[in-house]
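Example with several molecule types.
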Amino acid sequence: DTAVSQTPKYLVTQMGNDKSIKCEQNLGHDTMYWYKQDSKKFLKIMFSYNNKELIINETVPNRFSPKSPDKAHLNLHINSLELGDSAVYFCASSQVTSGSSYNEQFFGPGTRLTVL
Amino acid sequence: GNSVTQMEGPVTLSEEAFLTINCTYTATGYPSLFWYVQYPGEGLQLLLKATKADDKGSNKGFEATYRKETTSFHLEKGSVQVSDSAVYFCALSLYNFNKFYFGSGTKLNVKP
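Resulting structure tokens for the full complex:
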């Protein structure tokens, strides 16, 4: 069973379009994340949701809007796509337990977005 | 602030060579430390972790020791294989926090 899954794996689209990436986790975790990885492999956190509530919102253009319909899903919608949005987007999840000393993150396989 | 600094890559080694990838951190609290590995075309996988000073994390022949005095968590392996070729990320997480701080990643190429 896949722990964290993302769809689609590849997404090629034209500038100006709107697209969505879906993420689902079956680990029962309470926290989910979106990361952007650029061509140099640098990994940057974009958003984090805990129990469907937004808790981390880094400096990301407001064209990016996360939506969490339930604890197991965190989707990423992107409006008016730009060339600079081309990257690999990773979803991750973790169980953030009060009193725990760490919260290992489990990553999905990534979605490679190419904007033409 | 909180941050992780890794040695720049790529690192190119011959099979069976000794590997060290340096990682140092700054943190406002008492972090847990992690090494993640990303194989080509895949997501990140946890390789090993350490949650307190002097802990040693180990997995698949890789080791790293949490050194509070030098704020370091260097990754080592005694004998690398071609299959170890990947990008390695050092990361820290703070107590009860939801956020991970990742290093910039170090690409390892192992030649036969």
